[in-house]
Amino acid sequence: MKIQRLFFIFIIFYCLSVKAQNKQFLYGFKEIPQSLLENPGGQVDFNKHIGIPFLSGIYLNAATSNKLISSLFANDGVDVSDKYQTVIHELTTKDFLTINEQIEVFNIGYRLKNTKDYISFGFYQELDLIAYHPKDIAILYYQGNNDSNGNLDLNRNFNLNDINYKGEAFGVFHIGVSRKINKKLNIGTRIKLYSGAYNIQSINNNGEINTQQDNNNNLQTVINNLDAKFKTSGLTGISTGNSISNAIKNGLSGRNLGLGLDVGFTYHFKDNLTLSGSVLDLGFIHYSKDIKTYSIKGDIEINGLNILNPPTDKPLDYWEGIRVDVDSQLSIDTIHSSYVSFRSPKINTSLFYKFGKSHGRKGSCSTTPNLNYSGYLNEAGIQLYSIFRPVKPQVAASLFYTRHIANFLKAKVTYTVDSYSFYNIGLGASLQLGKFNFYAAADNLLGVADVYNSKKISMSLGMNLIFE
């Protein structure tokens, strides 16, 4: 097993992490066609849209749930190795880092002749990863079975179930329909066909490492109930240096297929009071190509283990003897059977109120028609978001305010509380010039002035053609 390669990939995921895909700007922003990807039951007021290929939807959100980067590389005169020893003790197994990136290749939609149904379809590429801090393993790797003062720490259990990570890159073909049931209710659904390019995951592991004294007062290293699996698919392309070309090819070829479902609704209690909700990515990917699962099971007892200072003048022979001893007590297999990776379902819900109805749209500085103008200048509300992850769900709550600045320009301000920050302010706008639509949004604006210590920076943008 290529332990060094897997460890390197894990470190890259850990250090270049990007936050989970809460898109509080896009959700409920009915002037933007991509909002249907966040709620397939969203209200649609236009008759057709065409996304500008590769530019209609670009999303990236970089973040960390702790100050790992700023703590390690702060210019404070303290050696990095000393700071790392402090950091790994401060972090908990609930600390996590994730990455989510999406690039939309194409997106098209049109209204059927019955006028009630709006069909939209397209393809986008997505990268989604999550890694939890393996606290016990990090401490064991860094300081061995000693405590923070350098003294031997006997009978402490180091839990191998702290190892939890999952990442995959895939393409998504999708088609959805939003139906207007009546003046109050819109419902919708979206079918997704996943095409997996890469996958790497290790979850639900078991086992404990312990150093103790035997009956003769000799040190004994014991690993109990070890049962760990490391699953991979598509990594041959990485090892041969063709990762980008293989990701594109595998994402389009349907080598590793899966199915997904989105559902959503929009309900108007009154003309200016609306409730909406959606459940996204109820699905899975079946990985069947370029599969390698490394399975390790067993119990180990090793007496007098001393890797750093071998009690012999032939350390290579000593280490080889340990390897043989370990192999004899473990069941280590490389399995090439296919496996299923479930997606991480997401839930959105929102309640918002419109006010400040404009008669004649006073204050407009352009005669360009706003295709989606509702007559209200303002919207205010709350959005709740949750994504289900291997250890526990990640949740977020956003307050938002939307304003029609002109009949062709609409802006949205959000304040979000999530696992990363309690003071995340975001700002975005949608510009409609004739048939051309452009939108852009940025998150965590308070962190822009101090990017070094900021926990997250995110952005999204897109360009579309929208027709009445």
Secondary structure elements and pairings:
Layout: H1 3-15, E1 48-51, E2 58-63, H2 68-73, H3 80-90, E3 96-111, E4 117-132, H4 135-143, E5 158-159, E6 165-180, E7 185-202, E8 206-213, E9 219-233, H5 236-239, H6 243-253, E10 256-270, E11 273-287, E12 291-303, H7 315-329, E13 330-335, E14 339-342, E15 346-357, E16 376-387, E17 394-406, E18 409-417, E19 424-433, E20 436-443, E21 456-467
Antiparallel strand pairs: 1-3, 1-21, 2-3, 2-21, 3-4, 4-6, 5-8, 6-7, 7-9, 7-10, 8-9, 9-12, 10-11, 11-14, 11-15, 12-13, 15-16, 16-17, 17-18, 18-19, 19-20, 20-21
Model description:
With 468 residues, this protein is mainly beta. It has one domain: Porin, CATH 2.40.160. 15% of the residues lie in helices and 49% in strands. The chain is built from seven helices and 21 strands. It has a 21-stranded antiparallel sheet that branches. The termini are far apart. The N terminus is likely disordered.
Task: Summarize this entry quickly.
The chain is mainly beta and 468 residues long. It has seven helices and 21 strands.
